[in-house]
Amino acid sequence: MTFNTSTRRSERLPAWLRRKIPLATESSRIEGAVRRRDLHTICREGLCPNRAECYAKGKGTFMMLGDVCTRGCRFCSVTKGAPEAPDRAEPEKIADASSELGLSHVIVTSVTRDDLSDGGASWFAAVIGELHALDPAPVVEVLVPDFGGDLKALDTVLDAEPDIFSHNMETVRRLYPEIRKGADYDRSLLLLSEAKKRKKEVLTKSSFMLGLGETTKEIFEALGDLIYAGVDFAALGQYLQPGLDQALVDRYLSPEEFSEIGNRGRAMGFLEVTAGPLVRSSYQENRMGVRRKDGRTMPAG
Ligand code: SF4
């Protein structure tokens, strides 16, 4: 499939994707805490349609290591280019903001930093440590880049003991060269399978955006690859074009199609599959009743 930006169809969003963004004071509370500390959230940088809802539930996903990425994924609105030197105080600031906001489940992700020798792994280890030191300790989920396939960087993150280790496959194997420049399908799978092999107790997770041109057969082949890699949770949502420079939507899957994919995915053996038009890798992350470091289990919901 080729993306010819000028000629592809642009359609009004289907009804199930249109949503009112409620004016939530919560947005300003979370964004205030983030801005005061010079932090970033993928919610804001990625123009996520769910952010008002997540904010209202006291959830947010912090984006570390700046807001400039060394990669150029065609679906992503994050700025590409030469990043600045990372802020060594960022892990502590994220824990501080999480504590102020009373977050019970903290997700930390980052842009890809191919310019750093460990791809930023030591920052992930530091932020996990800072969050585990909070009382009460939140569930800590890290959504990591592929670290260029560096398994020593993977160990650095795993040794810090995150509760959930996430790495997104984003799309199916055939679309990688076009959609995920600089990434490698098998390398991403290896990161997930090695994470499970090296730390059996860590929960692993991955997610896909659908509507980029993949076939239904390819979706289930990709889910099969995740099962083979020992992945516990999968999330599948509708790709939405964040800006004119990004890839066009090939099609909008109906809620019924997502529900069917979810049912078949669960039957494949995942602990949980979350599938729906507005599902994002960190949306509704608490459906799973994840156990915190202090042994208490997060209520599903
Ligand atoms: S790696 Fe791709 S998806 Fe992630 S921030 Fe960079 S461009 Fe966006």
What does this 3D model show about the protein?
Helices cover 33% and strands 14% of the residues. The chain is of the alpha/beta class. The chain has a single domain (20-299), classed as TIM Barrel. The longest helix has 14 residues, at 185-198. It is globular. The site of iron/sulfur cluster has 9 residues, from loops.
Quick overview:
The chain is built from ten helices and ten strands. With about 300 residues, the chain is of the alpha/beta class. The protein has a single domain, classed as TIM Barrel (Alpha-Beta Barrel), CATH 3.20.20.70.
Key attributes of the depicted protein:
two-stranded parallel ribbon; binds iron/sulfur cluster; 8-stranded mixed sheet; single chain; 33% helix; globular; TIM Barrel
**Mean pLDDT metric:** 87
Are there runs of 5+ residues with pLDDT below 50, and where? 1-10
* Main sheet strand line-up: 1-2-5-6-7-8-9-10
Oligomer: single chain
- Cα-atom Rg, whole angstroms? 18 Å
Structure summary, number of beta strands: 10
- The number of helices is 10
Helical percentage: 25-40%
The succession of helices and strands, N to C, reads HEHHEEEHEHEHEHHEHEHE
Number of domains: 1
Quickly give the CATH architecture: Alpha-Beta Barrel
- Small molecules (ligands, ions, cofactors) in the structure: iron/sulfur cluster
